[in-house]
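Supplementary Note 3. Input sequence used for the single-chain structure prediction.
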Amino acid sequence: MTTVEAFGCLPDGQSVRRITLANKGLTARILTYGATVQDLRLEGHEHPLVLGSPHLAPYLGPLIYAGSLVGRFSNRIAGGRFALGEQTFQLDRNEHGRHCLHGGRAGAGQTNWTIESVAADHAILSHELEDGHMGFPGHLRVEASFALIAGPALKIVIVARSDAPTPVSFAHHGYFNLDGAPTIADHLLWVDAQDVLVTDADNIATGATEPVTSAGLDFRKARRIGQQFLDHNFCLTAQRRARSKAAWLFSPRSRLAMTVETTEPGLQVYGGDHFPEAGLRGLDGRLYGPRAGIALETQAWPDAVNHAHFPDAILRPDQSYEHEVIYGFSTCETGDPNLGKPFG
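The predicted structure, written as C-alpha coordinates, is reproduced below.
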Protein backbone atom coordinates (compact mmCIF):
# COMPACT_ATOMS: atom_id res chain seq x y z
CA MET A 1 0.00 0.00 0.00
CA THR A 2 1.27 3.48 -0.90
CA THR A 3 1.59 5.80 2.08
CA VAL A 4 2.94 9.27 2.78
CA GLU A 5 3.80 9.92 6.41
CA ALA A 6 5.80 12.26 8.62
CA PHE A 7 9.47 11.42 9.18
CA GLY A 8 10.59 14.16 11.55
CA CYS A 9 11.54 17.81 11.19
CA LEU A 10 14.70 19.55 10.05
CA PRO A 11 16.42 22.08 12.34
CA ASP A 12 14.71 24.93 10.46
CA GLY A 13 11.28 23.41 11.11
CA GLN A 14 10.66 21.91 7.68
CA SER A 15 8.71 18.67 7.78
CA VAL A 16 10.27 15.63 6.14
CA ARG A 17 7.90 13.12 4.57
CA ARG A 18 8.39 9.44 3.82
CA ILE A 19 6.76 7.77 0.82
CA THR A 20 6.27 4.00 0.76
CA LEU A 21 5.94 2.29 -2.63
CA ALA A 22 5.30 -1.42 -3.27
CA ASN A 23 5.22 -3.30 -6.58
CA LYS A 24 6.63 -6.43 -8.24
CA GLY A 25 7.87 -7.81 -4.92
CA LEU A 26 9.86 -4.68 -4.03
CA THR A 27 9.07 -2.16 -1.31
CA ALA A 28 10.86 1.19 -1.34
CA ARG A 29 10.69 3.98 1.21
CA ILE A 30 11.77 7.41 -0.02
CA LEU A 31 12.35 10.55 2.03
CA THR A 32 11.75 14.06 0.79
CA TYR A 33 15.02 14.97 2.54
CA GLY A 34 17.67 14.49 -0.10
CA ALA A 35 15.29 12.43 -2.28
CA THR A 36 16.70 9.58 -0.21
CA VAL A 37 15.98 5.88 -0.64
CA GLN A 38 15.71 5.19 3.08
CA ASP A 39 14.82 1.49 2.82
CA LEU A 40 14.51 -1.10 0.07
CA ARG A 41 13.19 -4.64 0.57
CA LEU A 42 12.67 -7.65 -1.69
CA GLU A 43 9.98 -10.20 -0.97
CA GLY A 44 11.47 -13.45 0.28
CA HIS A 45 14.53 -11.75 1.82
CA GLU A 46 14.30 -10.53 5.41
CA HIS A 47 17.23 -8.13 5.31
CA PRO A 48 17.15 -4.62 3.80
CA LEU A 49 19.03 -4.22 0.52
CA VAL A 50 20.38 -0.77 1.42
CA LEU A 51 21.89 0.95 4.42
CA GLY A 52 19.59 3.42 6.11
CA SER A 53 18.12 4.62 9.38
CA PRO A 54 14.63 4.57 10.90
CA HIS A 55 15.31 8.10 12.19
CA LEU A 56 16.04 11.42 10.48
CA ALA A 57 18.90 12.62 12.71
CA PRO A 58 21.61 10.25 11.35
CA TYR A 59 21.05 11.59 7.83
CA LEU A 60 22.08 15.02 9.11
CA GLY A 61 25.34 13.60 10.49
CA PRO A 62 27.06 10.21 10.31
CA LEU A 63 24.81 8.84 7.53
CA ILE A 64 25.20 11.92 5.35
CA TYR A 65 24.61 11.12 1.64
CA ALA A 66 23.42 7.56 2.38
CA GLY A 67 20.70 6.85 -0.18
CA SER A 68 20.35 10.44 -1.32
CA LEU A 69 20.45 12.12 -4.74
CA VAL A 70 23.61 14.21 -4.55
CA GLY A 71 24.20 17.23 -6.82
CA ARG A 72 23.93 19.59 -8.57
CA PHE A 73 27.32 18.16 -9.32
CA SER A 74 28.13 14.82 -7.68
CA ASN A 75 31.62 13.86 -6.58
CA ARG A 76 34.49 16.38 -6.47
CA ILE A 77 35.41 19.62 -8.21
CA ALA A 78 39.06 20.53 -7.63
CA GLY A 79 39.56 23.63 -5.54
CA GLY A 80 35.81 24.22 -5.76
CA ARG A 81 36.53 26.22 -8.90
CA PHE A 82 35.87 26.07 -12.62
CA ALA A 83 35.62 28.40 -15.62
CA LEU A 84 32.89 28.79 -18.21
CA GLY A 85 33.95 31.01 -21.08
CA GLU A 86 35.58 34.09 -19.59
CA GLN A 87 34.02 33.71 -16.15
CA THR A 88 35.43 31.76 -13.21
CA PHE A 89 33.12 30.43 -10.50
CA GLN A 90 34.12 29.78 -6.90
CA LEU A 91 32.02 27.09 -5.26
CA ASP A 92 31.47 26.05 -1.68
CA ARG A 93 34.56 24.14 -0.51
CA ASN A 94 32.97 21.64 1.83
CA GLU A 95 35.63 18.91 1.65
CA HIS A 96 38.71 19.61 3.77
CA GLY A 97 38.11 23.30 3.08
CA ARG A 98 39.69 22.78 -0.34
CA HIS A 99 37.26 21.12 -2.73
CA CYS A 100 33.56 21.05 -3.59
CA LEU A 101 31.93 17.67 -2.87
CA HIS A 102 28.44 16.64 -4.02
CA GLY A 103 27.33 20.18 -4.79
CA GLY A 104 28.49 21.81 -1.55
CA ARG A 105 27.41 21.64 2.07
CA ALA A 106 23.80 22.40 1.12
CA GLY A 107 23.70 20.35 -2.07
CA ALA A 108 20.54 18.67 -3.31
CA GLY A 109 21.23 15.61 -1.17
CA GLN A 110 21.02 17.73 1.97
CA THR A 111 17.88 19.71 1.24
CA ASN A 112 14.15 18.97 1.38
CA TRP A 113 12.48 18.12 -1.92
CA THR A 114 8.82 18.66 -2.91
CA ILE A 115 6.41 15.82 -3.64
CA GLU A 116 4.91 16.30 -7.12
CA SER A 117 2.93 13.06 -7.39
CA VAL A 118 2.60 9.65 -5.78
CA ALA A 119 1.07 6.43 -7.14
CA ALA A 120 1.18 2.80 -6.06
CA ASP A 121 4.41 2.06 -7.92
CA HIS A 122 6.10 5.42 -8.40
CA ALA A 123 6.69 8.88 -6.97
CA ILE A 124 8.02 12.11 -8.45
CA LEU A 125 9.93 14.66 -6.35
CA SER A 126 11.15 18.06 -7.49
CA HIS A 127 13.66 20.62 -6.32
CA GLU A 128 14.90 24.04 -7.40
CA LEU A 129 18.43 25.33 -6.93
CA GLU A 130 18.71 29.08 -7.36
CA ASP A 131 21.29 30.85 -9.48
CA GLY A 132 24.37 31.23 -7.28
CA HIS A 133 23.41 28.38 -4.95
CA MET A 134 26.69 27.00 -3.53
CA GLY A 135 28.40 29.22 -6.13
CA PHE A 136 26.96 27.48 -9.21
CA PRO A 137 25.50 29.54 -12.06
CA GLY A 138 21.96 29.09 -13.36
CA HIS A 139 18.55 28.50 -11.84
CA LEU A 140 18.17 24.73 -11.99
CA ARG A 141 14.92 22.80 -11.72
CA VAL A 142 15.21 19.05 -11.26
CA GLU A 143 12.64 16.27 -11.06
CA ALA A 144 13.40 12.76 -9.85
CA SER A 145 11.11 9.84 -10.57
CA PHE A 146 11.34 6.67 -8.47
CA ALA A 147 9.50 3.67 -9.96
CA LEU A 148 9.25 -0.01 -9.05
CA ILE A 149 9.12 -1.94 -12.32
CA ALA A 150 9.17 -5.51 -13.61
CA GLY A 151 12.40 -7.28 -12.91
CA PRO A 152 11.88 -6.47 -10.11
CA ALA A 153 13.84 -3.24 -10.26
CA LEU A 154 14.10 0.27 -8.88
CA LYS A 155 14.21 2.77 -11.73
CA ILE A 156 15.37 6.32 -11.07
CA VAL A 157 15.04 9.00 -13.75
CA ILE A 158 16.45 12.48 -13.11
CA VAL A 159 15.51 15.33 -15.44
CA ALA A 160 16.85 18.88 -15.09
CA ARG A 161 16.69 22.19 -16.94
CA SER A 162 18.71 25.39 -16.35
CA ASP A 163 18.34 28.99 -17.53
CA ALA A 164 22.14 29.35 -17.87
CA PRO A 165 25.07 27.03 -18.65
CA THR A 166 25.94 25.07 -15.51
CA PRO A 167 27.66 21.82 -14.47
CA VAL A 168 25.09 19.08 -13.76
CA SER A 169 25.67 15.54 -12.58
CA PHE A 170 23.29 13.98 -10.09
CA ALA A 171 24.01 10.56 -8.56
CA HIS A 172 22.08 8.14 -6.40
CA HIS A 173 24.36 7.55 -3.41
CA GLY A 174 22.80 4.37 -2.02
CA TYR A 175 24.88 1.78 -0.17
CA PHE A 176 23.91 -1.78 -1.10
CA ASN A 177 24.28 -5.00 0.87
CA LEU A 178 22.61 -8.03 -0.69
CA ASP A 179 22.79 -10.51 2.21
CA GLY A 180 22.69 -8.59 5.50
CA ALA A 181 26.22 -9.67 6.48
CA PRO A 182 28.34 -7.17 8.46
CA THR A 183 30.41 -6.35 5.34
CA ILE A 184 30.25 -6.73 1.57
CA ALA A 185 33.66 -8.47 1.46
CA ASP A 186 32.19 -11.73 0.15
CA HIS A 187 30.11 -10.05 -2.58
CA LEU A 188 31.24 -10.50 -6.17
CA LEU A 189 31.52 -7.39 -8.35
CA TRP A 190 31.62 -6.97 -12.12
CA VAL A 191 32.14 -3.58 -13.83
CA ASP A 192 32.12 -2.98 -17.58
CA ALA A 193 35.10 -0.61 -17.70
CA GLN A 194 38.61 -0.81 -19.11
CA ASP A 195 39.93 2.33 -17.39
CA VAL A 196 39.67 4.28 -14.16
CA LEU A 197 40.49 7.90 -13.40
CA VAL A 198 43.84 8.63 -11.81
CA THR A 199 43.46 10.70 -8.64
CA ASP A 200 45.79 12.54 -6.26
CA ALA A 201 46.05 12.33 -2.46
CA ASP A 202 42.78 14.30 -2.12
CA ASN A 203 41.00 11.89 -4.49
CA ILE A 204 40.89 14.64 -7.13
CA ALA A 205 41.06 13.61 -10.78
CA THR A 206 44.43 14.50 -12.32
CA GLY A 207 43.06 14.38 -15.87
CA ALA A 208 44.69 11.05 -16.67
CA THR A 209 43.13 7.60 -16.97
CA GLU A 210 44.74 4.27 -16.19
CA PRO A 211 43.86 0.75 -17.38
CA VAL A 212 42.03 -1.24 -14.73
CA THR A 213 44.67 -3.96 -15.14
CA SER A 214 47.57 -1.78 -14.01
CA ALA A 215 45.46 -0.09 -11.32
CA GLY A 216 44.60 -3.45 -9.74
CA LEU A 217 40.91 -2.71 -10.34
CA ASP A 218 40.01 -5.17 -13.06
CA PHE A 219 36.44 -6.30 -12.42
CA ARG A 220 35.69 -7.24 -16.03
CA LYS A 221 35.41 -10.76 -14.70
CA ALA A 222 33.27 -10.93 -11.57
CA ARG A 223 35.43 -11.37 -8.49
CA ARG A 224 35.21 -11.18 -4.72
CA ILE A 225 35.56 -7.67 -3.30
CA GLY A 226 37.45 -8.79 -0.20
CA GLN A 227 39.38 -6.07 1.61
CA GLN A 228 40.30 -4.06 -1.47
CA PHE A 229 39.95 -0.31 -0.99
CA LEU A 230 37.39 1.09 -3.43
CA ASP A 231 36.74 4.77 -4.08
CA HIS A 232 37.30 5.10 -7.81
CA ASN A 233 35.56 6.40 -10.92
CA PHE A 234 35.31 3.65 -13.52
CA CYS A 235 35.23 5.12 -17.03
CA LEU A 236 32.28 3.37 -18.68
CA THR A 237 32.14 5.42 -21.88
CA ALA A 238 33.49 8.60 -23.46
CA GLN A 239 30.02 10.21 -23.55
CA ARG A 240 26.48 9.75 -22.31
CA ARG A 241 24.63 6.98 -24.15
CA ALA A 242 21.50 4.87 -24.35
CA ARG A 243 20.97 2.94 -21.12
CA SER A 244 23.40 0.03 -20.91
CA LYS A 245 24.55 -2.53 -18.36
CA ALA A 246 27.38 -1.06 -16.29
CA ALA A 247 27.82 -3.24 -13.21
CA TRP A 248 26.67 -6.37 -11.42
CA LEU A 249 26.80 -7.26 -7.74
CA PHE A 250 26.21 -10.75 -6.33
CA SER A 251 26.05 -12.36 -2.90
CA PRO A 252 26.90 -16.08 -2.82
CA ARG A 253 25.31 -16.19 0.62
CA SER A 254 21.82 -15.00 -0.40
CA ARG A 255 22.12 -15.93 -4.11
CA LEU A 256 20.82 -12.43 -4.79
CA ALA A 257 22.21 -10.42 -7.70
CA MET A 258 21.81 -6.76 -8.63
CA THR A 259 22.34 -5.41 -12.14
CA VAL A 260 23.06 -1.70 -12.66
CA GLU A 261 22.03 -0.13 -15.97
CA THR A 262 22.63 3.53 -16.74
CA THR A 263 22.92 6.28 -19.32
CA GLU A 264 25.89 7.87 -17.54
CA PRO A 265 29.58 7.71 -18.60
CA GLY A 266 31.02 7.14 -15.12
CA LEU A 267 30.51 4.81 -12.17
CA GLN A 268 31.96 5.75 -8.79
CA VAL A 269 32.45 2.57 -6.78
CA TYR A 270 32.87 3.29 -3.07
CA GLY A 271 33.31 0.59 -0.44
CA GLY A 272 32.11 2.56 2.59
CA ASP A 273 35.41 2.52 4.46
CA HIS A 274 34.56 5.69 6.39
CA PHE A 275 31.98 4.08 8.67
CA PRO A 276 33.36 3.84 12.24
CA GLU A 277 34.70 0.59 13.68
CA ALA A 278 32.21 0.85 16.54
CA GLY A 279 29.40 0.93 13.99
CA LEU A 280 26.40 3.15 13.31
CA ARG A 281 22.97 1.87 14.30
CA GLY A 282 20.75 1.44 11.25
CA LEU A 283 17.74 -0.43 9.87
CA ASP A 284 16.48 -3.34 11.96
CA GLY A 285 19.02 -2.39 14.63
CA ARG A 286 21.94 -3.41 12.42
CA LEU A 287 25.40 -1.98 13.07
CA TYR A 288 27.13 -0.39 10.08
CA GLY A 289 30.90 -0.57 10.39
CA PRO A 290 33.50 -0.13 7.65
CA ARG A 291 32.45 -1.76 4.35
CA ALA A 292 28.90 -2.44 5.54
CA GLY A 293 27.65 -1.50 2.07
CA ILE A 294 28.91 -0.56 -1.38
CA ALA A 295 27.88 2.52 -3.36
CA LEU A 296 27.54 2.20 -7.14
CA GLU A 297 27.04 5.81 -8.20
CA THR A 298 26.25 6.45 -11.87
CA GLN A 299 27.38 9.95 -12.81
CA ALA A 300 29.55 12.21 -14.95
CA TRP A 301 33.29 11.85 -14.55
CA PRO A 302 34.43 13.74 -11.42
CA ASP A 303 35.87 17.23 -12.01
CA ALA A 304 34.78 17.04 -15.66
CA VAL A 305 34.34 20.83 -15.67
CA ASN A 306 38.12 21.24 -15.36
CA HIS A 307 39.13 18.68 -18.00
CA ALA A 308 38.05 19.45 -21.55
CA HIS A 309 38.76 15.90 -22.74
CA PHE A 310 36.37 14.35 -20.19
CA PRO A 311 32.74 13.70 -21.24
CA ASP A 312 30.91 17.03 -21.34
CA ALA A 313 29.02 17.75 -18.11
CA ILE A 314 27.70 21.25 -18.85
CA LEU A 315 23.93 21.65 -19.15
CA ARG A 316 22.89 24.51 -21.42
CA PRO A 317 19.53 26.34 -21.54
CA ASP A 318 18.49 24.70 -24.82
CA GLN A 319 19.13 21.21 -23.42
CA SER A 320 17.54 18.80 -20.98
CA TYR A 321 19.60 16.69 -18.59
CA GLU A 322 18.16 13.17 -18.48
CA HIS A 323 19.87 10.61 -16.28
CA GLU A 324 18.47 7.11 -15.99
CA VAL A 325 19.64 4.32 -13.68
CA ILE A 326 18.00 0.98 -12.95
CA TYR A 327 18.93 -1.31 -10.07
CA GLY A 328 17.46 -4.70 -10.96
CA PHE A 329 17.31 -7.75 -8.68
CA SER A 330 17.29 -11.47 -9.39
CA THR A 331 18.36 -14.75 -7.84
CA CYS A 332 21.27 -16.65 -9.40
CA GLU A 333 22.73 -20.08 -8.81
CA THR A 334 26.15 -19.06 -10.16
CA GLY A 335 28.17 -15.87 -9.98
CA ASP A 336 27.79 -15.02 -13.67
CA PRO A 337 26.98 -11.40 -14.59
CA ASN A 338 25.98 -12.45 -18.11
CA LEU A 339 22.87 -14.11 -16.73
CA GLY A 340 21.30 -10.73 -15.96
CA LYS A 341 18.67 -9.42 -18.37
CA PRO A 342 17.85 -5.78 -19.26
CA PHE A 343 15.04 -4.20 -17.25
CA GLY A 344 12.01 -2.12 -18.34
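The mean pLDDT is 96. The two ends are 22 Å apart (CA to CA).
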